[in-house]
Amino acid sequence: MTEIRIIEILSEIQDKLNNKLTHSWVNIQQVRNYTGLSESTIRRAVQKGVLKVSTTTGKLLFKLSDVDRWLNNG
After folding, report:
1. Helices 28-35, 39-48: crossing angle, 10 deg rounding
2. At 36, is the secondary structure helix, strand, or coil?
3. What is the pLDDT of residue 1?
4. Using an 8 Å Cβ cutoff, are 1 and 7 in contact?
5. At what angle do helices 28-35 and 64-73 cross, to 10 degrees?
6. Cβ neighbours of residue 73 under 8 Å, at least 6 residues apart?
7. pLDDT tier, 17 (very low <50, low <70, confident <90, very high otherwise)
8. Which residue has the higher pLDDT, 8 or 54?
């Protein structure tokens, strides 16, 4: 296997991992750790409708891709 092919394979693996992470669901504590922001700031963003959240399980659950979008637009 050539060095170029190894780099291509590693790049494919990295893309798959990144895609999986950004589509995973996290709770508000994990969003706090990920962003470094307070829980009240996150809850305010949810109340204003600028941060998408799912409550189907009775808990606030966020997609990391939505959190990233909120951080980049805010």
Report:
1. 110
2. coil
3. 72
4. no
5. 50
6. 50
7. low
8. 54
